[in-house]
Amino acid sequence: MKVFLSLLFTILCSTVLFAQLPPIIDRELFFGNPDISGAQISPDGKWISFIKPYRNVQNIWVKETHEAFEKARPVTADSLRPVTNYFWSRNGTYILFVQDKGGDENFRVYAVNPKEKGDPVPKARDLTPLAKVRAYILDVPKKTPNEIVVGLNDRKAELHDVYRVNIETGKRTLLRKNDENIAGWDIDPEGRVRLGIRQTADGGSELLRVDGDKLTQIYTTTSDESFGTIRFTPDGKKVYMTTNKGAVDKQQFELFDLASLTTTVLEKDPMDEVDFSGAVFSEKTEKLLATTYTGDRERIYFKDKKFETDYKTMQKSLPQGEVAIVNMTNDETLWMVSVASDVDPGSRYLFDTKKGTSTLVYKSRPTLPSEHLAPMKPVRYTARDGMTISAYLTIPKGVDPKNLPVIMFIHGGPWARDMWGYSPYAQFFANRGYAVLQPNFRGSTGYGKKFLNAGNKQWGTGAMQHDITDGVQYLIKEGIADPKRIAIAGGSYGGYATLAGLTFTPELYAAGFDIVGPSNIITLLNSIPPYWAPMKKTFAIRVGDMEKPDEKKMLEEQSPLNFAKNIKAPLYVVQGANDPRVKKAEADQIVVAARELGLQVEYMCAPDEGHGYRGRENRLAMTVAMEKFFAKHLGGRVQEDVPADIRKKLEAITVDVKTVTMPEPAKP
To answer: What does the pLDDT look like over 168-209, one tens digit per residue?
Structure first.
C-alpha cells in the first residue's frame, strides 16, 4: 500500500509539474550535430573555416569570406570519427588537425590545403604516420611558418621526444630526445626547445632550462604548489607564467627572467576570489592586451587602450552573453568572435576593427528555442566542515523551485571545474522537468591551492564526496529538492562520484547514471596510460599511494566496487570499448558485481568510442537511454519518438548484462 501511495504521489507531482513546463524540446537539438560550429578566420582574412556534417559526420569546411555558406565545400571527409578541432598554419596555407581511431587517443597530426581540389576533398597529409603512437602539437613557431613542433612517444611510450615537422614535405627532424622524464616542453619564438617541466621525487614540479645537452633547474614548487608557463617574451629572455609558489593562495600572473632567475608579479585577482585564468596577447605586436579571471562569470581586465576601445565597440554591437575572441587575422583587423550564454550554445560574429561593426556569421543551433531554456544561477553552500562550495543551479523554466526531482550532475577531472554558460545536459534535464546542481567540490581547480589541496586523498568516503552530499542536503533544506527523487550522474570522475554516491550514501539517491567512471581506484591506477607516467606521483599525492599499506587500504575502502552490496538504487553504466584512461574493465566489473547481487543494472558499451561518446548516433542513443532511465525512476518527462537510426544504434550498443564477465585483474 505504501509503495502504491508513493507512486501515486509521484504521478500527481509530475502531472502538476508538466503543466507548468515549456514544450518538450527534441533531444536532437541538444545532442545532435550542430548545423555549423568552430568557425575561424584565415590569417589573410580571405577564408572562413568551420565544422559541419559531411555525410552525417562532423568535418572541416571552408568558404571564401564574402561567400554564402551554400557555396562552402568540405576539406575533410572522415566517415568514422568526427573532426572536432583544428587551426590554421601560421602562413594560412594549411589547416591542421589531430585525429585518433575509435577513441584510443593515439592521435596523429594531419595537414590539408583548403585551396587544393579533391574527390571529394583534398588529400590530407599525415604528418605523424606512426601506429600506436600519441602525437601532440607543442608549438607553431612564428618565425618558421611552414613548420610545427610536435611531441612523439614512438621511442618510449611513457615519454615524448621533440621533433620539428615540415608541413609541406612531412619531413621530421629530431630536436631532442626525452630521457629525463620530462612531462612537457616549451618552444621559444625561434622554434628552439628552451624549457622542460618535470615532476620532482616528492611530487612537486621543476622548470628546467635547456643548456645544450644539459638541463638546469631554475624554478621549483612543492607538491602543494603549482606553476605553468604561458609564453616567451619576443626576445626569448623571459617567460610569462602563472604560479602560487610561496605564501600566496591564488595563482597569480608573473614574468620570470631566465638569466637572473627572478620573478616580477604582474597581477593577481583584484577580487581575490579565483586563480589567474588567462592572458590575451597580440600576435602582431606581442603586447599584453588583457587578463581574465573566471569566478561565477568571466571577468576581463584591459592592459592596452586601443584593444579596450575596440573590444568595447565590439561588445556594443553584439547580443548579451559571454564574449570570446576565437582568432584574428594577421593584421588583427578582423576578429572571429564567439558569443554564448546559459541559454544560447553560441553564435559567431566577424568584427571589423576598422569599421567598428560586427556581422553575424552563424548561429550554431538556430532552431534551438532559447526562450524555452532555463537560466543557470551561481549559488554557494556551506559544507559540513565550513568550507564554501560554489555551484551552478538550473531550475526548469516556468516552475516554482519547490519539491522538484533533481539530478546532481558531477564534473570530470576531478581537477577541473564547471563554469557558467550553456550546458546541454543541464538544459536537457531542465526541459524534462529536473532541477540540476553542478557543484565545484573541493579538489576542483580555479579556487586557489588551499581549496584544491583540500581534495587530496578525499575520494569516495572523503570530503570531495561529502561536498556533493552536502549539495543534496542544501537543496533539500531550501525546499528545492524532493528528497525521494534525487539522482546522481556524470562522466569520468563524475561517473566515479555517481558510483560512490550509490554505494556510500545509498539512502540519498533514487538512481545513478555512470558515464565512463572508474569503479575500483586500485585497478584504475594500475592501468593508467603510459604517457601519464611522468606525472604518476600526482596520483599518489592527490588520490593515494598504493605503495603505502595504510593508503592502499584507504583506496580499497574508497572503491565503489568493494561496496556494491550497499547499492539500493537502479544503476546505468555507459562505457567506450577503446577508452585508454578508464578501461572497459572498470565498467564490466561493477556491472558483474551488481548483477550477481541481484541489483537493477543496465549497461551500454560502444565499440567505436573511447573516453566519452563523440559519434552522433552513439551520443543520441545514450541520451535516449538516459532520458528513459530518469523518467522511469524520477518521474520526469520523456520524448517518446526515437528515429529509426538511433533506435537501431541503441539496440546495437546496449549490452545484455547476463553476458558480461569479470575481467582479469590489471597488472601494476
So the answer is: 999 999 999 999 999 999 999 999 999 999 999 999 999 999
- 412 and 547 assigned to the same domain: yes
At 348 the pLDDT is: 97
Q: pLDDT for 518-554, tens place per residue? A: 999 999 999 999 988 888 899 999 999 999 999 999 9
CA angle 514, 517, 523 (to 5 degrees): 140
Whether 343 maps to a domain, the answer reads: no
- Of the residues 275, 470, 579, 608, only one is catalytic, namely 579
Element (H, E) at 393: strand 388-394
Q: Which residues contact 356 (CB under 8 A, 6 or more apart)?
A: 310, 313, 317
Continuous H helices in 526-601: 536-542, 549-557, 584-596
Is 452 domain-assigned? yes
Of 525, 533, 580, 530, nearest to 554 by C-alpha is 525
Find out whether 275 and 242 touch, Cβ atoms under 8 Å.
Answer: yes
Question: Cell digits for 118?
Answer: 579533391
- Our count of domains for the chain comes to 2
Q: What tens digit of pLDDT does each residue of 127-166 get?
A: 999 999 999 999 999 899 999 999 999 999 999 999 999 9
Is 611 tagged catalytic? Answer: yes
Whether pTM > 0.90 for this model: the answer is yes
Q: Please confirm, yes or no, whether 579 is among the known catalytic residues.
A: yes
**Do 94 and 9 lie in a common domain?**
no
Shared-domain flag, residues 42 and 24: no
pLDDT band at 7 (very low <50, low <70, confident <90, very high): low
Same domain (yes/no): 459, 563: yes
First to last CA, the chain: 52
Which of 160, 466, 611, 633 is catalytic? The answer is: 611
- C-alpha cell of residue 209: 632550462
Q: Give 81-114 pLDDT, tens digit per residue.
A: 999 999 999 999 999 999 999 999 999 999 999 9
Residue 328 lies in a domain: no
The 3-state secondary structure of 189-230, one letter per residue: CCCCEEEEEEECCCCCEEEEEEECCEEEEEEEECCCCCEEEE
Q: Which of 49, 423, 444, 492 is catalytic?
A: 492
Same domain, 18 and 81: no
Domain boundary among 179, 203, 236: 179
CA dihedral 220, 222, 228, 231 (to 10 degrees): -10
Catalytic residue check, 49: no
**Opening angle at CA 613, ends 612 and 615, nearest 5:** 155
Residue span of the structural domain in which 109 resides: 35-179
Average pLDDT, the chain: 95
